[in-house]
Structures are given as structure tokens and as C-alpha cells.
Design goal:
It is built from 21 helices and 18 strands. The chain has helices at residues 22-25, 28-31, 33-36, 42-48, 66-70, 77-85, 89-97, 103-109, 113-117, 129-139, 161-172, 189-192, 201-212, 230-235, 266-274, 292-303, 323-331, 399-406, 408-412, 433-436, 441-460, and strands at residues 3-4, 11-12, 154-157, 177-181, 217-220, 240-243, 249-250, 263-265, 284-288, 307-311, 335-337, 340-347, 353-366, 372-376, 382-385, 388-391, 395-396, 428-430. It has a five-stranded parallel beta sheet, with helices on one face. Helix 16 links the parallel strand 9 and strand 10. It is globular.
């Protein structure tokens, strides 16, 4: 037991505490129902918000605390927070790195499922776990890991969160990998689609450099299927291929006029700005969408000097973007128009967009496991003026390009298994947004980790492309 207590104020030795909860269930205040469920007590308030998390019964295996259980990477959140509280910053970073190869990135852009599950949020604000992770990543130093020797055995297409995590895990297991990145810098969409005001470039570069120093090879500026093919990889001795190319194809509005001048999708806009083109799109920019890409585009357009209005067909609470991103956008001057759906892009005689024809919506019944469905309200058509339109309805994997790169023979047998990451082709696996569609950074990382395990097992059995 990690508890010594002869009074009502026990002393917990966290170094030996096994979270078995024997001390908890032996506490008189726990056994007296009236005390345990008291509506005005701290204990009672925690119990009312317990949800599906239940403390383990004496003698049963310890259950992960809610924050760790909610993390797709299963990070030891209580462990590194305790080390930070004790001022042991280096040890905290080392603990984080046991499960997370991108701590600086996650310290800025993680969607914080751990904070949503934090027990403290039932009585006050959640522990700022993401901010504390960023602090540890900034304050600690990476311990160099011996680089894996020899030539690469695995080719990873895409150097986003999934590809980087897979390459890291494979290197840690003794298998050298090669990252193939079509952009001129590694990081995938983290490098060019996430603005630096949300993800500082030095944070991304710090995480990537630590992975490359493990012996991971980077080939940037190469397109799989165009500059390097499957046959080339085989000739180089590559025995497994991991497709982690992300979801880089923007979804269309599918309304009349969206191909007119002045309409651009969010990824194209963000890529253009990243390349150094800081010309404003117009005096008044409309953004359609409610996810992180919409917020990034809206905040970037605002920084370029445009008046920005976000048009979203549901309510604010339904936006898939992190609530903090929405709050920061509003604080920066971005305006919002909720329960509004575009039906047509208004175009002038010269073929340039000059506004949106929209309709009011109401929220209907929620489909199974989904958000409420927006339903147009008859007779509510109206126009919203604008000089430019940024569409941000989401992204999808560019599967046709990958299939073309694999060749007709392989494409005919190509299948994606979301659970295993297998493709139906020996030695070829998939991970991240390319496998599951757009998700969070930490979800892509967890998927990359699962794929690395599958590749590891394939190579261990002597498999080859």
C-alpha cells in the first residue's frame, strides 16, 4: 500500500501507490452512504460526475484513471503531471516520450481528450494537461537514442503524425524506415496546413529532428508513384510499405457557382499562405465549415486584413473544431453565422464570386451516433455579400492517386481494413487519416503505432513486398 494514515489526513506515497483503491474502499467516509453521496461534499460531487468510470473494487486489477483511458496513446498522464508538480521536468519529459514521440506538437494542437475526461472538471476546470505537456517539451532535453544502422526496410509514404509515429516506433524496435514526403519539408499537413500561430514551427521541427536522429531517412519533395514507384522500392531492399499519406483532398460544397473566381478550398488557401503569398483574398471573406481547417483558414484570412464571416449550418456547440479555437477566432474578430447553409454562389457578369445565397436551418433528429441533422427552413432564403469564399467542409484521402501509383494489378486487390491497417496486398499497410479519414493528431499517431506493430510482426515473420 502507498498510504500511511492514522488520522483523517492520510499521506500518499505516489512512488509505491498501485492505484488498487484498497485505501479508498477501506475509508469510513466511503462506506457510509450518506457521506459518500453528500450533495455538498467534494466526494459527492465527484461521484455525481463519475459517468462510466468506476473505481476498482478491492483485490481487482487497477483501472486506468479517466485521463489516461481517454488518451488514444494511453499516456501516463498522472505520472508525468506528478513529476512536473515536483519540479522534475526532465523526468516528466522522459515519461511522456515513453508513449508519445511528438510531445511538442501535441502540446499545441492535441484535441485534449484527456482534459475532457479529467476528474477535476467535475468540480472545477480540468487540469491544463496540454499546456503542461508543452511546458515539459520546452523545458526538458531529449536523450539521444542510438540510430538504427543498415539500409531502410520500410518505406512510409507521408510524414504526418501517423507516418512519423510509425517510423519512430519501428526504429525503436530496430527496423530502419524511410519517409517519402511530397512536400519539401517533413510533417505532412502539420507543416503547411496548420498555421504557425497554432503550431510554432520550432515545436514541429524539434519533434521531427529527434525522430530523424534515430536513423529514420527522409526523402522530401518526392511523390509516390511519380518520382518513386513500388518497383524502385523493391530494388532498394524495401520489404514493407506503409501508406500514411493523410487526407489531402478537399470536399466540395456541391452547389452551383462553386467553381467561380474567388472561391478556394481551405487547404489550397493555407498552402498558398505557407508558401509566402500573403495577399488578402478580399475585403470580406466568407468561410463555410466548422472544423479545425475552417478555423485555421478564417484566422489566417483575418490576419491578412480581411473581414471574415464563418457560415455554419449547425449551432456553435456542434462545431467539430476545438472550442478553444472557436473562442480564439472570435476574440480575433472572426464573426459567425450559425444555423445557415449555402445553396448557391452568387456570381457577377465577369464570373467572380460576390456572395452566397443561403437558407436558414433547424436541427432535426440526430442520426445514429451522429450530430443532429440540419434541415432547411422554407421561406428563409437570403443573401450574404462577400468578395471571396473559402470552403472547409472536410477532407478525404486521395485514394485514386495511391491506387494509380500501385498499378492496376495491385489496385484491383486493394482493400482497406480500418482495424488492422492491412490492404489485402502482402507487405503493404495503411495508417492515419489515409486509413480512417480525417481525425485528430493523437488519433493518427495511435493508428500509426498500431500499423508499426503490424509491420513489425510482418517483418519478424520474414515477410517481404
Amino acid at each position: 500500500m502507498g498510504v500511511e494514515g492514522r488520522t483523517h489526513r492520510p499521506v500518499v506515497d505516489h512512488g509505491i501507490c498501485g492505484a488498487c483503491a484498497v485505501c479508498f474502499h477501506g475509508c469510513p467516509a466511503e462506506r457510509v452512504v450518506e457521506v459518500r453521496d453528500g450533495p455538498d461534499s467534494l466526494r459527492g460531487r465527484v461521484y455525481r460526475g463519475a459517468g462510466s468510470f468506476a473505481l476498482p473494487v478491492p483485490g481487482s486489477p487497477a483501472q486506468d484513471p479517466p485521463c489516461r483511458a481517454a488518451c488514444p496513446l494511453g499516456q501516463d498522464v498522472p505520472g508525468y503531471l506528478r513529476l512536473l508538480a515536483e519540479g522534475r521536468i526532465q523526468e516528466a519529459l522522459d515519461r511522456i516520450l515513453e508513449d508519445n514521440p511528438l510531445p511538442a506538437v501535441c502540446g499545441h494542437v492535441c484535441t485534449r481528450p484527456c482534459e475532457a475526461a479529467c476528474t477535476r472538471s467535475r468540480i472545477h476546470d480540468a487540469v491544463p494537461i496540454r499546456t503542461l505537456k508543452a511546458f515539459a517539451a520546452l523545458g526538458g532535453r531529449r536523450t539521444p537514442i542510438a540510430a538504427v544502422g543498415g539500409g531502410p526496410l520500410v518505406a512510409v509514404v507521408g510524414s504526418g503524425p501517423a507516418g512519423l509515429t510509425a517510423a519512430h516506433d519501428l526504429a525503436r524496435s530496430g527496423f530502419r524506415s524511410m519517409l517519402i514526403e511530397s512536400h519539401n519539408r517533413p510533417g505532412g499537413m502539420l507543416a503547411w496546413a496548420v498555421p504557425p500561430f497554432r503550431l510554432p514551427r520550432e515545436a514541429l521541427e524539434t519533434d521531427i529532428q529527434a525522430i530523424l536522429e534515430m536513423g529514420v531517412e527522409l526523402r522530401a519533395g518526392l511523390r509516390f508513384g511519380k518520382d518513386v514507384g513500388l518497383g524502385d522500392l523493391r530494388e532498394e531492399g524495401i520489404r514493407a510499405l506503409l501508406l500514411a499519406a493523410g487526407a489531402t483532398r478537399s470536399l466540395a460544397l456541391e452547389i452551383p457557382g462553386e467553381d467561380s473566381q474567388g472561391v478556394v478550398d481551405s487547404l489550397a488557401f493555407l498552402r498558398r499562405v505557407h508558401a509566402g503569398d500573403d495577399r488578402p483574398l478580399g475585403g470580406r471573406v466568407l468561410v463555410v465549415g466548422g472544423g479545425s481547417a475552417a478555423m485555421d483558414a478564417a484566422r489566417t484570412a483575418r490576419r491578412l486584413g480581411s473581414e471574415v464571416l464563418v457560415v455554419y449550418r449547425r449551432e456553435r456547440r456542434d462545431m467539430p473544431a476545438d472550442p478553444q479555437e472557436v473562442e480564439e477566432a472570435a476574440a480575433e474578430g472572426v464573426a459567425f453565422c450559425f444555423l445557415t447553409a449555402p445553396v448557391r454562389v452568387i456570381v457577377d457578369r465577369d464570373g467572380r464570386m460576390q456572395g452566397l445565397e443561403c437558407v436558414r436551418t433547424r436541427l432535426g433528429e440526430a442520426e445514429s451516433g451522429a450530430r443532429p441533422r440540419p434541415v432547411p427552413v422554407p421561406g428563409t432564403g437570403h443573401e450574404i455579400a462577400g468578395d471571396a469564399l473559402i470552403t472547409a467542409l472536410g477532407q478525404a484521402p486521395d485514394l485514386p492517386r495511391i491506387l494509380e501509383a500501385l498499378g492496376k494489378e495491385h489496385a484491383a486487390r486493394f482493400r482497406l481494413d480500418p482495424e488492422s491497417g492491412e490492404t489485402g496486398l502482402a507487405g503493404i499497410f495503411a495508417a492515419g487519416d489515409f486509413l480512417n479519414g480525417p481525425g485528430s493528431v493523437v488519433e493518427a499517431m495511435a493508428c500509426g503505432r498500431r500499423a508499426a506493430r503490424a509491420v513489425h510482426e510482418f517483418l519478424r515473420r520474414g515477410g517481404s513486398l
